[in-house]
From TrEMBL:
Pfam families: LpxC. Its cofactor is Zn(2+). The gene is envA. It comes from Marivita lacus. This is UDP-3-O-acyl-N-acetylglucosamine deacetylase. It catalyses: a UDP-3-O-[(3R)-3-hydroxyacyl]-N-acetyl-alpha-D-glucosamine + H2O = a UDP-3-O-[(3R)-3-hydroxyacyl]-alpha-D-glucosamine + acetate.
Length: 311
């Protein structure tokens, strides 16, 4: 087997502590090495009886507009996993057991950069099994009243995203990106989750954003950025939406080869898109990854030196 086409896992245990963005609950999380063909699996260590493991797969997603939440058949769940899923995909990690002692992943600084930094610092090791990729063969598209998302054939994983907010601090933003060879780490991983000041009270009234602060989210009000230090990028909002999309696409269970387009899309639309893809038997195929394909995957050849200095 040629170097660079084998599945990977983390070299050693990678630990994090923080609070959940929506629950406000303190949580400890550890990304642990796992064998080939294990995939990404979350385990609730605070649950002693029954099945506490949840596979990070699209068909385990319970719809939640503000985050990605996975649930197993016993009703055990973990929410706000999109940033850690994006970090694992962007670092080229295919297998890991994520052990967590609460119902929600830690938000840290609101981006994926802290996850990326520690994963790359610990190192990634190869396993004795080939990477299998999911190649999109035909275009699928889904719509809601808010926006739409589309996934079609592509040589690697590429993305076009467009957002449109009334607040002038965000406004209309568009970005296109080829996610091959570390582009996620260089271009997207440090972009933070964001919200409008007018939405904070409403979210907290329904038990959301209880752990949100000006340090772990970008809060905007009209043409003002209220969070200290301002923006990390002038288009940080659309970059974060792309970060979320990569994390949600990682729930396919293997690296995707295709072109994703999102117009005012979010977690729900991306999950609907994966469900539509996998409900279309001739819309995709699973194939082993050769060296040419491996070079086009998001985590190929990435290093910690590529993390933006602003994060």
């Amino acid at each position: 087997m040629c170097e660079g086409v084998l599945q990977t896992t983390v070299q050693s245990i990678v630990r994090f502590s923080g609070i959940g963005l929506h629950t406000g609950v303190p949580v400890n999380m550890a990304i642990c090495p796992a064998p080939a063909d294990h995939g990404i699996v979350f385990e609730r260590t605070d649950i002693r009886l029954g099945n506490a493991r949840i596979a990070a797969l699209f068909d385990r997603v319970e719809q939640s507009p503000l985050c990605t939440k996975i649930v197993n058949h016993s009703g055990v769940s973990v929410s706000t996993i999109e940033h850690i899923m994006a970090a694992l995909a962007g670092c080229g990690v295919h297998n890991a057991l994520v052990r967590i002692d609460g119902p929600e992943a830690p938000i840290l600084d609101g981006s994926a950069a802290p996850f990326v930094r520690r994963i790359l610092s610990a190192g990634v090791k190869q396993l004795r099994s080939p990477i299998r990729v999911i190649e999109v063969l035909s275009t699928v598209e889904v719509h809601t009243a808010q926006g739409w998302a589309r996934l079609g054939p592509g040589a690697g994983l590429t993305m076009d995203f467009h957002i449109d907010f009334a607040d002038r601090a965000i406004g209309r933003q568009s970005k296109s990106l080829d996610l091959a060879n570390g582009a996620f780490v260089r271009e997207l991983c440090d972009s933070r989750t964001f919200c409008r000041a007018s939405d904070v009270k409403a979210m907290r009234a329904v038990g959301k954003a209880l752990g949100g602060t000006m340090e772990n989210a970008v809060v905007v009000d009209g043409d003002k950025v209220l969070s200290p230090g301002g923006l990390r990028h002038s288009d940080e909002a659309v970059r974060h939406k792309m970060l979320d999309a990569l994390g949600d696409l990682a729930l396919a269970g293997a690296p995707l080869l295709g072109h994703y387009e999102g117009h005012k899309a979010g977690h729900t639309l991306t999950n609907m898109l994966l469900r539509e893809l996998f409900a279309t038997p001739d819309g995709y195929r699973v194939r082993e990854c050769d060296t040419m394909l491996a070079a086009r995957l998001p985590g190929a050849g990435v290093g910690a030196h590529e993390i933006p200095a602003v994060a």
